[in-house]
Design a protein that fits this description.
With 162 residues, the protein is α+β, with helices and mostly antiparallel strands. The protein contains 6 helices and 7 strands; from the N terminus they run βαααβββαβαββα. The chain is globular.
Length: 162
């Protein structure tokens, strides 16, 4: 595997490349997400977007939400079809967790009930199912809420207090 660099989203061109990657892969194909819808998510300034690069081209990205009820929510993770099974998803998850665990003891994500391969990856990384939302994004499918925790919130806050 070549070395992967993960950096903040840097340009409109990069956002377009990531939107194409997203719109042409699961689960977004099943959800019928268009390129424009994917691009809109990538341009949402309330989110943090980090891009994995392999020899100057984007091969994956992760979008984090560090605000709201679920601080540390991994909203989207996507790896280019031609770059899968090389550990890039695991590297993106590790990067996301490093970012999240500096501010929160919990990392959250949702995985679609039909996305078995992704769910297996998340479970192998220590994520556990904490709930299921039937028909949340699409009738007939559930979104499965998963969490990985390094401490209860109260303990985490006490440890960070001066």
């Amino acid at each position: 595997m070549s070395e992967i660099r993960i950096q903040p989203l840097a340009s409109g061109t990069e956002a377009s490349q990531c939107a194409t990657m997203m719109a042409t892969s699961e689960p977004w194909i099943t959800f019928g997400r268009t390129f424009d819808e994917c691009l809109s998510v990538l341009r949402d300034v309330s989110r943090e977007v980090y891009v994995a690069h392999d020899v100057q081209r984007p091969v994956g990205f992760v979008i984090l939400n560090m605000h709201g009820a679920f601080v540390g929510y991994i909203q989207i993770i996507c790896v280019a079809a031609e770059a899968r099974s090389r550990g890039i998803g695991t590297e993106l998850m590790s990067f996301a967790e490093g970012r999240i665990f500096r501010e929160s003891p919990n990392a959250f994500l949702c995985v679609s009930s039909f996305n078995h391969r992704a769910k297996e990856l998340y479970e192998s990384l220590g994520y556990r199912v904490v709930g299921e939302m039937p028909d949340y994004l699409m009738r007939g499918h559930s979104e499965i809420l998963m969490r990985k925790s390094i401490a209860p919130i109260d303990d985490f806050r006490k440890k960070r207090s001066p």
